[in-house]
Give the backbone structure.
Amino acid sequence: MPSLGYHKAMKKRTKVLIISGSALGVIAGIGFLSVYFTLLYRYKGRQVDNTWSKDDPFYLASVKTLQKKKGEDFVILNFADIQLCDLEDTFTKESVHRIMDKLVSEHKPDLITLTGDQTWSNENLLSLRSILRWLESYKVPYAPVFGNHDHGNEFSSAVAGLNYCCDLYEDSPHCLFSRGPTNIDRLGNYPINIVEEGKVVKTLYFLDLGYFDSISDKQRDWFCYTADGIENELGYAPEGMMFTHKDFPSFRNAYKHYLDGSAQNSGDVYANGGYSYVEEDGFVELAKQHGVTDFLCGHQHWNNFTIQDNGARFTFCLKTGPYGGIYQDDSLTLSGGTVITIGEETKITHHLAGA
Ligand SMILES: [Fe+2]
């Protein structure tokens, strides 16, 4: 008959085998998913032909609208650079989810905007689906633009390709995203009108500067066509707000002018993270001539300000995700969102919501 010591040894050996087996199973599972998602399969999505020409007739009815109640503020909450990766952020994504929940419940937005880099790395399938599930749960309309990381590590290298991301966005009931024209070198350019008692009080333009450091000529033409079309049909030019992922050089100039005292800030100003090298080439001036008074972007996680400069206001939105974002002093890496309140005037404020 085996001794008590023998039983104990067998029990210990079985336990070690179970733990080792489970650990190996988890490692093999992660390995399999890594290979599957990063090497074996790409989700290409629907190939849509939405060819546009500047000679096409413009239809105001084709622009999605949101209603603002008279005498009440219309609140937009922006999430910037959520930047989740399928595998690497498995254990951090819930903290991002909590930050988003907190901001939504505090500010009760009428619209949520997302200034790009919703995901990062090639592994963007599970993370984007999670983000869409969270956004849908708020039952609030939302409007994203693409960021450079939404394209993957390199241009078009993401597991969920840009067309597939367009499909996911367009198929989500509360999402106002439209892939827009498919022949202007970018996907995801679209306007939204905010209407109060039949009057358009704001036109929001979402432009995909995502992976690129320039705005394409065709994209510029499409913007002018859209802004002119809205103005011609309405008989007036509504004030515009432009959402892009990357910053134009005008953001850097606004900061310079803030430093020399010739530009006005509202709230704190943090600019520690450098700037993008987007070729502006007169586009900001062109947009201003078409009624745009606000430019909002993300991308530089360490920059966060709202500065009025040279006839427009430039806002680096506060980043929401876990990466970068030194705020207040160099020891803090904090996250939050940006709130745009459209009332008698339009105010922009930044709100921390977690470390
Ligand atoms: Fe970015």
User: Anything to note?
Assistant: The chain has two domains: 1-41, 49-354. Helices lie at 4-40, 93-107, 125-138, 162-170, 217-234, 249-259, 283-289. The longest strand covers residues 346-354.
